[in-house]
Amino acid sequence: MADIELDFAEVRRAFDHAATSYDAHAVLQREVCDRLLERLDFMSLQPGRLLDVGTGTGYGLAHLLARYPGAELCALDIAPSMLHAARARLPQPTWAQRALQRLTPHALPLTHLVCADMGRLPLAANSMNLVWSSLALQWAHDLEATLKGLHQVVAPGGLLIFATFGPDTLKELRAAFSAIDDAPHVNRFIDLHDVGDMLIHAGFSSPVMEMEMLTLTYADLKTLMRDLKGIGAHNAATTRRRGLLGKSAWSRLEQAYETQRQEGRLPATFEVIYGHAWAGDKTQREDGRQVIQFNIGERRRKLGMA
Question: Which CATH number fits domain 8-166+190-214+272-301: 3.40.50.2300, 3.40.50.150, 3.40.190.10, 3.40.50.300?
Fold first, then answer.
């Protein structure tokens, strides 16, 4: 997150509260997760241990379990209620598997659910062969420091792969709010090139970055705001305006957003950044002269919402 300090007590509270409504509103999140999963098809990797950073309600976690059935998984999230929802999504062991686990505690791969801040990982160094994160890194208090922490836990030769949001995310909503006041109402996100630089500074090698624009369309502003609240992704800046908008301010916000209506629908743009990088052998410090491959996708997809 750039330029705006986040209130992490509010971030945790918002996601904890949204756990029961998240799946009903997370259309975009599932789409991005599916696209990130497709990128694993091109990685010749069979991790013994993997970490899911920001597991949420476990949609990606379930797919990772199916893809790597022999792996030991660690699912990390800041919100306890999200982890509770993720646990419910996990396949339940048969009675025979439970009996085997009691007799031989390490005979079967385990899934650990860990409630922690991604910026303060309670994990051993070099303990993970794959670190995966789908739309969570934008909530990092200090992204470069968080990436350094992730590099520390990735084993030599291991992979970090992630999706996060770029600065054009919700640009229409940000523009509409600017018609009301100068307070921050929409979180700000870090540019693709800066994320690539941070990966190098964190110690990763051969980073590859991609970007694409996805557009959801809505019948009205209330439905968009309901979706954002439903996934817990509302404004968490420490300098945010407290309380609900008054009727006059809400009316002006609706009018400002209406100027952007296209083909009868209100657009909500999301700039999605995909990236992956390798831990390398971790025996030497990188000199910062790696080549970053940028594949700036112009694919634009509109997903209509109610």
Answer: 3.40.50.150
